[in-house]
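Attaching the record inline, Q. Sequence:
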Amino acid sequence: MIYDVAVIGGGASGLMAAGRAGEQGAKTILIEKNNSVGVKLLMTGGTRCNLTNYLENSKVLAANFGLAGRFLISALTRFGPREAVDFFESRGVKTKIENNNRVFPISDQAGEVLNALISYVKKSGVEIKTGAAVSDIIIDQGKISEIILVGGAKIKAANYIIATGGQSYPKTGSSGDAYKWLKKIGHNIIAPTPALVPIIVQEDFIKELEGLGREEAALSLFQDGEKIAVSRGDFLFTASGLSGPAALNLSRLIKFPIKKGLQLAIDFFPELDISSLDEKLREIFIGTNRTLKNSLAGIIPPRLIPVLEFLTGLDMDGKAHLVTKIERRKLGYLLKDFRLGVKGLAGYNQAMITAGGLDLKEIDPKTMRSKIISNLFVAGEVLDIAGPTGGFNLQASWSTGRIAGEAAAADRTK
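Structure, as predicted:
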């Protein structure tokens, strides 16, 4: 049998692509190497599935993806957050909007989102083939002629969509298989790195702060003393570094190999400039007979105080009113610019997504068609797209998958 469209990968973008192709009347097969589809989707949003971010302005939404935003404008305009919410609502998934425009199913169950997608795919007449790993892609005269599965079975189609994801959460089957296929057939692959992943720092004292969190802090990346990025929000100290939304979002910008001189700075009081913080500290310290550590405990986590003592040399058991102006300013500067050396990133097993991937210059953003292989379309995380936390990356998967499925189906008779 020769299919109109063969989709490789049964994740978010693959399910959307296959469903849309079948809905357009294309004879479609969805190929997934796991024994079931959507394994990784079930883990998203802490199993609650943060299915999009409800920013209605496509340009503002796209800007969150950095340089990849321009590429995504077309797809987000045609199938953006409003369309995604309508898609799932019309299939029985009632949604709610939480802080920072994050959209979740009211049930807080990722399984409900997956079931809606599977139902969509089946109603669109798509054949689902699970437990089917691709071993090779055969090219003939600039087109894919067939794909070969492990075990020797062959699948032929007029058009093919690769939607295999990246390398994050490898236990779910995301092993980066498509990178080697795409490279073999002539595509350029931007070196993949784990993203939306905890940042590992050089300082040993960080383990004393494990589990300590801070809401609405500002984290900045510095390279050789020059600020290159800022991320605001919650963060959490780990035994080896930092996690939480603010840190995870910065991790997208850290590439391997880690350059010498890369630093992370924490601003514990981003709402105050240094002069205002100094005045706040002066008001707390003046005229009190309390110790410095007891005075500070009202504005910073007590567990941070021993580390501040270590870094500043101040006697935290001394009287707060005896702190000099110079000592107070030293403390204030540290609270506004708490520097840590970046050592690396946690691995793919802790990464929400993969940064890097297929070079966007080689894909038509209006159709997701390869500019190198005429009957190949690519969607989802395998592309060099990495957005922040908060539903952005699933939206990119829905949008690119939808466009790829639509274009591949429309092109099947050409």
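The mean pLDDT is 93. The two ends are 18 Å apart (CA to CA).

More tomorrow.
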